[in-house]
Amino acid sequence: MTETGGGAPPSPGKVLFGKYEMGRLLGRGASAKVYHARHCASGLGVAVKVFPNPRRPAGCSAAGDSFIREISALRRLRHPHIVRLHEVLASRSKVYLVLELAKGGELFSRVEERGHLPEDLCRRLFRQLVSAVAYSHSRGVFHRDLKPENLLLDEAGDLKVSDFGFAALRSSSSSSADGDDGDLLLHTQCGTPAYVAPEVLTKKMTGGYDGAKADMWSCGVILFVLNAGYLPFNDPNLMSLYRKIYRGYHRCPRWTSPNLRRLIARLLDPNPATRISVDGILRDPWFAKDFDADQWTALMQPRGDATDPSGKPHHRRELNAFDLISFSPGLDLSPLFEEATSDRERFALAEPVDSIVDRLEQVGRAQGLAVRREGENGFCAVVEGQKGDFLLRVEVYPLTASLTVVAIERSGGAGESLWNEKLGPALRGPVNLALETPSFITEAERIHDATGSSME
Ligand code: ADE
């Protein structure tokens, strides 16, 4: 992180939302600052990324766009080599991302200290990087700003990919990665020039680029830097730098082994169509040396829900101010987080949590479905079809004693009619307040005002 962000810094020792004691500044970027903090309940360290001015509409400020991208991306990702998002908090003037703390700092500093890294260490870190990038791609997330400054290390020296503020997300209902306009190719020029793929520079002429292949190029630049200790393409003149990137001409240092040279050349192939893909990397002799295929398969598995810093799942949290902001039509951020899909729904009910979940249990069981509660207070219920062909996840957030927000996520096509005919109507129950009704908004705004003012 290099440039300056805005907003008054949280002073060290200040306790944020009664939960996190703020510490020293860890880094700063174009749109945010990152602070060390301590989760008061568990004593564990976290990183808190502070974005100023969440009220500015997306696109009007670097922060406006990047915190939404980062939250959207990290909410989809749970991987040992990707910084975990524990929680999102918000006040009237700031959004706070509570992130897993990478205690070892930036990988870049490690390379600078040591000049360059030994080949076996390059292989270990590169494998971790490729596992994180391949997993992200499989979840429809394209990082677009991979560089050593965004690669952190934990206390064991293992890699953590961070900073998804430039990420593009493929909508869950299509195969396109549309950070911008919904077709198969990306159009926004992102990233740091020295790490950017040639087709990203020329996208205007070629009509877009493939986010996965562009990330692979950046992985190639990173692998080169780890091994060499310097950049493959470098020039103080931006135009000359672009020309070098476009030609893909690079020279490995003399200590680079022939197999590593070959892999770097396949990654730094200026033609994205012939550039090596993740599948190709897995078969590459340098990468595949002593490769543990089972470990790789385990790394690619989708994982469970977000947890707080002490590892407790977040199923039963109260709505926080951020949720209230995003539920408010005056500043509805939710469409920006995920594409609207028919298998997600959110509505409010003028009923307490328990009676809603009780009703779901009764109706579900009457239909022969397995219904189980999750979370200490049973604020989440999961309904499963008998053959595992239908999964409904219902999260209920108590807004007030009598007002509850219900968030539904369905998967498995088999449940469509079951949902439409039985579970949906039963769940909506006697009184369904659409989120747009003035009474709900007034209530939400009242709470937001009350919480917002005490959270600054
Ligand atoms: N700098 C930026 N993000 C960080 C994190 N999650 N942990 C440690 N330092 C960071």
Automatic annotation (TrEMBL):
List the keywords (alphabetical). ATP-binding, Kinase, Manganese, Nucleotide-binding, Serine/threonine-protein kinase, Transferase
EC number annotated for this UniProt entry? 2.7.11.1
Where along the chain is ATP bound?
Answer: K49
The protein's GO terms of the molecular function aspect are: ATP binding; protein serine/threonine kinase activity
Q: Which reaction does it catalyse?
A: L-threonyl-[protein] + ATP = O-phospho-L-threonyl-[protein] + ADP + H(+); L-seryl-[protein] + ATP = O-phospho-L-seryl-[protein] + ADP + H(+)
List, alphabetically, the PROSITE patterns matched.
NAF, PROTEIN_KINASE_ATP, PROTEIN_KINASE_DOM, PROTEIN_KINASE_ST
- Tell me the SUPFAM superfamilies matching this sequence: Protein kinase-like (PK-like)
SMART domains registered for this protein in UniProt: S_TKc
Q: Its Gene Ontology biological processes?
A: signal transduction
* Sequence ranges assigned to domain NAF in this UniProt record: 314-338
Against Pfam families, the record matches this protein to: NAF, Pkinase
Residue intervals of the Protein kinase domain:
20-287
Report the function annotation for this chain.
CIPK serine-threonine protein kinases interact with CBL proteins. Binding of a CBL protein to the regulatory NAF domain of CIPK protein lead to the activation of the kinase in a calcium-dependent manner.
Q: Which family does it belong to?
A: Belongs to the protein kinase superfamily. CAMK Ser/Thr protein kinase family. SNF1 subfamily.
- This chain's protein is named non-specific serine/threonine protein kinase
